[in-house]
Design brief:
heterodimer; A: mainly alpha; 2 helices; 2 strands; B: mainly alpha
């Protein structure tokens, strides 16, 4: 059960973060200028082009991915530790 | 192992995180990240003491973010906490990461700070991947890799009787 939740947490968090950063970033790029989620202005300061996807949406996906990891951490705190959770592969401080 | 010299993309790829270079680099990243926050917090203490008035003002202008009205509300109502909290917590987070003590707990605080900086600064002119997001990812890296266990005090703290009796403390250490 823990293994399934581990995998789900990893997949969902990475999926949400990569969707907000890379997938929507690619769509934004292919849609033409501005290539970044910030309005384009001319020399007079007038907005001449606005982003296709607002930064609120993209940051929202990333923060949702981080929240998934936070929820996973909370889940691990309140559930019994797995039997094989001993610290392995660690180097002691000199 | 089916490593093929003709095509390194075929076969198993091993990245052992217990190698000396990996531990050295994880510890180095942790200390530099810690210094970054310690310097930021301690210089605020030197200049403004524990009355960092820009903190609430910064949050009051954070309208139109994905967090909705939460930051603005915090700026308007939690100034009593934010003014001393920003310099104090930045300093403590930095010291904890430098020493490698309570590393994951401290880095969680760093994630909170950097999330607010990332969406609040809104410097997305060159894309959403900016220095604030990279700083946020650094703190998450420290948590995921348990960076305090490498040349940090958490490696010693985790050997104490208290932690052995309460192994879940390792989720906050390490």
């Amino acid at each position: 059960m823990t293994d399934i939740i581990d995998k789900a947490a990893r997949a969902l968090s990475a999926g949400l973060m990569l969707f907000g950063i890379a997938v929507l970033g690619l769509i934004e790029t292919l849609a033409g200028q501005p290539f970044a989620p910030a309005p384009m202005t001319n020399e007079a300061g007038d907005v001449v082009a606005t982003p296709l996807v607002s930064p609120e949406i993209r940051t929202g996906f990333v923060l949702a991915g981080i929240a998934v990891l936070g929820l996973y951490a909370a889940y691990r705190l309140v559930t019994p530790m797995p039997d094989d959770s001993d610290v392995r592969h660690e180097t002691m401080a000199d | 192992m089916s490593y093929q010299s003709s095509n390194p993309l075929v076969g198993e790829v091993e990245f052992a995180l217990d190698g000396p270079w990996a531990t050295y680099w994880i510890a180095f990243l942790r200390v530099v990240t810690g210094w970054w926050f310690f310097h930021s917090g301690f210089t605020k203490i030197l200049t403004d003491g524990f009355a960092y008035g820009y903190g609430p003002a910064y949050m009051q202008q954070m309208s139109g973010t994905v967090l909705g009205g939460i930051p603005v509300w915090m700026g308007n109502n939690l100034a009593w906490l934010i003014e001393p909290g920003v310099p104090l917590f930045e300093t403590l987070i930095g010291l904890a990461l430098i020493a490698g003590a309570l590393t994951r707990f401290a880095a969680f605080g760093g994630v909170i700070f950097m999330s607010l900086f990332w969406i609040g600064n809104a410097g997305f002119g060159h894309g959403v991947v900016n220095s604030d997001l990279m700083g946020l990812l650094l703190f998450m890296t420290v948590i995921v890799l348990a960076a305090g266990r490498y040349y940090g005090l958490d490696a010693l703290i985790e050997q104490t009787a208290l932690v052995k009796q309460h192994p879940k403390l390792r989720y906050l250490l390490g």
